[in-house]
Design goal:
Elements lengths: L4 H4 L2 H14 L1 H14 L5 H29 L9 H25 L2 E5 L18 E5 L4 H11 L7 E7 L6 H8 L4 E3 L8 H9 L5 E5 L8 H13 L3 H9 L8 H10 L4 E8 L7 H7 L4 E10 L8 H30 L7
Parallel strand pairs: 1-7, 2-5, 2-6, 3-4, 3-5
Antiparallel strand pairs: 6-7
Helix pairs in contact: 2-4, 3-4, 4-5, 4-7, 5-6, 8-11, 9-10
C-alpha cells in the first residue's frame, strides 16, 4: 500500500541523513565493496554499484532542495502550475536524467545503439515530428523509463513528457515530488481500469512540445504474468487475442484501453513505437544487484506513424496495436540472435 502524501514527504529529510551517513562511512563502504566485488561477476561490480548509488542519492537530495525552493517561490505551491514553474521543473528533470544516464554509461561501460533504420526523435538530420506525440513502449523495468524520458527530453529535442506509470513509484521522493507537480498519471494496481479517462485528459491538452509516454503491457514481462494475461483474455472470450498473445515470446499482450483513450483524445498526435533490449531483467533491487548489465550494448529501435495513418475505429486500433506488438516481439528475437552471433568467438581455423 502507498503511504499518504503527508507521510511520504518525511522521506526527503531522511535522505539527507542517509547521504551524510554514507559520506562519513565512505572509507568503510569502499572496503566492503572491494571485498564484495571479488565474489560477484564483472569487474569491480559492487564498487561500481556503490558509486552509482552515492551519485543518485546526492542528485536526489539536490533536486529535492531545488524543488523546495521552487515551491516557496511559487507562493508555497499556489502558483506551481504556471508555465514558468513547470518549465523550471522540466529543466531540472532533464538535467538530472542527463547526469544519471551519463554516469551509468561511464560506470557500467554501457553503449546505447539506435537501430540504423529507426526514425529518430532527435534533431540529427532525420525529420522529426512537429506534432504532439504518443509514445508506446515495451515495459522492461525502471531502467527503460529513465532511458526513454531522457531521450525525449534531450536538449536537442526538448519534449515535455507526460508519463503513465505505477503509483508505487511515488515511493521515490524525487519521482513523487516532481511528477506530481507536472501532468502525469499514476496508476493504482487495484484501479487500473479507471485510468482511461485520466489518460485521455493528459492527451487532450497536448501541444507540439509534448509527448505522452504509455507502457501498454502495464507490467514487466515474466512467464507468470504472461500466463495470467493470456488467461484473462481467454476468460473474456477473446479467442483471436489469445492466439496472438500466445505467439509472442518476449512481450505481454498490450492493454488497449489507455492507448485508445489517448488516441481518441489527441487525434492530432503522431505515434512512436519503441523497442529495446538489455534492461528487461531489471525489475527489482535484487535483479539490479544480481544482474546489472556491464560492458554491454543496449539496442533501441523507434518506429514513426504519422497522425493521419493512425486508425480511428477502436476495434481497428486494437488490431493495429497487436500488429505493432508482434513487430516489436520479432525485432527483439532478431536483435538477440544477432547479438549472440556477434559475441560468439570465431571458430579456430587450420
Amino acid at each position: 500500500m502507498l503511504p499518504p502524501r503527508r507521510v511520504r514527504r518525511f522521506t526527503g529529510p531522511l535522505l539527507i541523513g542517509v547521504l551524510v551517513a554514507a559520506v562519513v562511512s565512505l572509507p568503510v563502504l569502499v572496503i566492503v565493496a572491494v571485498v564484495a566485488s571479488v565474489w560477484l561477476p564483472g569487474r569491480w561490480y559492487a564498487l561500481r554499484l556503490l558509486f552509482f548509488a552515492l551519485v543518485y542519492l546526492a542528485l536526489e537530495v539536490a533536486a529535492l532542495v531545488v524543488a523546495a525552493a521552487l515551491w516557496a517561490l511559487s507562493g508555497w505551491g499556489r502558483r506551481s502550475d504556471r508555465p514558468v514553474y513547470r518549465r523550471a521543473h522540466y529543466t531540472m528533470l532533464r538535467m538530472l536524467l542527463d547526469v544519471i544516464m551519463r554516469v551509468a554509461q561511464r560506470l557500467f561501460s554501457l553503449r546505447l545503439v539506435t537501430d540504423g533504420e529507426s526514425w529518430s526523435p532527435l534533431d540529427d538530420g532525420v525529420p522529426g515530428s512537429t506534432n504532439a506525440m504518443v509514445v508506446l513502449s515495451r515495459h522492461a523495468g525502471p531502467g527503460d523509463s529513465f532511458l526513454l524520458v531522457q531521450t525525449l527530453m534531450n536538449r536537442d529535442h526538448l519534449r515535455r513528457p507526460r508519463i503513465v506509470l505505477k503509483d508505487l513509484l511515488q515511493l521515490d521522493p524525487l519521482i513523487d515530488v516532481y511528477l506530481n507537480r507536472l501532468p502525469n498519471h499514476f496508476v493504482a494496481a487495484d484501479r487500473a481500469r479507471d485510468s482511461a479517462e485520466a489518460i485521455a485528459e493528459l492527451a487532450r491538452g497536448m501541444g507540439h512540445e509534448d509527448a505522452l509516454l504509455i507502457f501498454p503491457e502495464g507490467a514487466n514481462f515474466t512467464p507468470k504474468r504472461r500466463f495470467r494475461a493470456i488467461q484473462r483474455l481467454r476468460e473474456r472470450g477473446l479467442v483471436s487475442a489469445v492466439r496472438r498473445a500466445e505467439a509472442m515470446r518476449n512481450l505481454l499482450p498490450p492493454r488497449p484501453a489507455g492507448v485508445t483513450a489517448a488516441l481518441r483524445a489527441a487525434p492530432h498526435a503522431d505515434v512512436l513505437f519503441v523497442a529495446h533490449t538489455g534492461l528487461e531483467h531489471l525489475s527489482t533491487v535484487r535483479d539490479i544487484w544480481r544482474g546489472l548489465p556491464m560492458d554491454k550494448t543496449l539496442y533501441l529501435r523507434w518506429w514513426f506513424v504519422p497522425a493521419d495513418e493512425v486508425p480511428r475505429d477502436e476495434a481497428e486500433q486494437t488490431d493495429w496495436l497487436y500488429r505493432w506488438w508482434e513487430t516489436i516481439d520479432d525485432w527483439i528475437d532478431t536483435t538477440r540472435l544477432e547479438e549472440k552471433m556477434t559475441s560468439r568467438p570465431a571458430a579456430p581455423t587450420g
